[in-house]
Amino acid sequence: MEFYFLIRHSFLHFSLLISLISISFAYGTEFKIPRLGALRRKVGSEPETTSTSSSVSNDFETFFYNQTLDHFNYRPESYTTFPQRYVVNSKYWGGSKTSSPILVYFGAEESLDFDLAGIGFLTDNAPRFKALLLYIEHRFYGKSIPFGSREVALRNASIRGYFTSAQAIADYAAIILHVKKTFSAKNSPVIVIGGSYGGMLAAWFRLKYPHVALGALASSAPILYFDEIAPQIGYYAIVTKDFKETSESCYETIRKSWDEIEKVASKSNGLSILSKKFKTCQKLKRTFDLKDYLDSIYSEAAQYDHPPWYPLNIVCGGIDGAPKGTDILGRIFAGVVAYMGNKSCYDMDEYNHPTETFMGWRWQTCSEIVMPIGHGNNDTMFPPAPFNLNRFIKKCKSLFGVQPQPHWVTTYYGGHDLKLILHRFASNIIFSNGLRDPYSSGGVLENISDSVVAVYTVNGSHCLDILPERKSDPQWLVKQRKTEVQIIESWIAKYYTDLIATANKILIPAVAAVKFPGLEVTHSDGKTLKLPITINGNEVDADKLAVPKASLVCLSFRASSQAMIDSWSKPFYEAHRESNQVQLYEVSFVDSWLLCLNPIKRLLLRTMRKSSHGEDTLQRQIVYSFGDHYYFRKELKILNLLTGYVFLLDKFGRVRWQGFGLATQEELSSLLSCTTLLLEEK
């Protein structure tokens, strides 16, 4: 019985594989959706642009998470688990105590191996953000395959049904929360990043899981290429425009070549002539195979027209550079050689081999990722090949036994009236595009709101902004990346402000509190002191200065914020004026290098406000700090110098409560209540 079961399922898998190959070759572009993917495969004409995992630094550590197969049902089989791969790089992370951010890359329709070195945005910006880096592999790709075998998973119709984008982003949420718990990073903001299909996932994730991700960078994400929102010809219209702008003569040669192929093929031995002319590895049986191969080259060259190689220039350089007198098809072949490299023969099925990405993406496009891409008569440089939904559905049903759901993406994630929907319900999403990328025709190219923004470049290509930085990068690309980073920084800054606003309602637990950074201050009489005054401090003379159980340190970086400081310090002083266990410091910062010079500094101190020396036990200590305070402010995440900040410290110098701006009555009540709790701590 077991033998029969194995033989039967092996036969089913073989039949599915044969069906995939035969349908692919039989229907070609009528079935094929141009390849997505953040990274372009290497072609023969250029050096390696990305590295595989074998050359990735030791800073990357691989883990496997015991992932739930089905996040949305409660049947017994739903609780089946499989190992899902994720990779962490903590080299530059500032740590959980500083709530440093986590940058998360969403793997898409291929193994994660290539993304670790091929995607540069995370590693390039990790030092700036002091970020923990997390890369998550998409289910059913790479090493993240249910039941451990792609063959078993894809041949089983029931298992295949869990191969969806909704399950994938639920996976991402589970792993992000797991990593945050593992690294004790509860308050670390998460920014999700993806390119191409992964960019769509990043945008959708921000919409579906706003409590998990603070924001999303969706690079070259064609989220409008569904349900006839974007025009069918959009993709190929931009390919055509790219070639025409690169070289008018190249464009004309390609446009005329399709009829020439049919003209030669109509001869008695025409297919043999074409096979010889294009050095095909197998004799052509139909012209479609050659035309599909050329279509794939032109589309790929336009989509991934990255500097410094610029594949469009390579293709057109070959076509235009053919010897004088070369006929049209001879020039086309010269373009093939220039792009693919000089080979003994050229495999017309090179773009259709049943690779991991090919097989997985076929299923996804046959189930939910239905992108109606085609071209009609004389609207591009390509021969007519309109997208026919009925024919597409029929082919998918014959291949997988399921009917595609062309409206599901817009139903589940939204799409129609997207501008209005995102304006109402979305925030913190960057849609980045390069207008030379054919998929930009399905991208978001205008700002939706103040925080849902479009960042694009006229000369950019597919996912170029998230690739590794190069010294040779053009300035427009450098500027695009800088803009994206600044937007993300603004999200994180606001998050930290909100975090403070939330935190100032409760006393921060001692185990989660961070140490107040050391700060040298000067009284108006010239005497210096180092804050905070702590029970284990070495900078103070314990005989002369008692260690307080609670200290309120008020920081003012500009004179305009003094009123804010007074709104905190005066009520605090009145409440604790008789306490000998509390201290109050008002620190004014002087960062002008001229005023920091000793003679001027001494003169300035004589004119400054002085500490109170009344009869009360609690004294308002008015002190000043001179010099550059960049790193001090950075540790406390102080960004707005026009605002006053207050920090309640315990006897160990840890920040147990904090506030900013003008104090409200509710905030004052919270401060005084937390101070009382602090005084009661043993």
TrEMBL record:
The keyword Membrane does not apply. InterPro entries: AB_hydrolase_fold, ATP10, Peptidase_S28, Ser_carbopepase_S28_SKS. GO terms for biological process: proteolysis. Keywords: Glycoprotein, Hydrolase, Protease, Signal. Pfam families: ATP-synt_10, Peptidase_S28. GO terms for molecular function: dipeptidyl-peptidase activity; serine-type exopeptidase activity. Belongs to the peptidase S28 family. This is ATPase assembly factor ATP10, mitochondria.
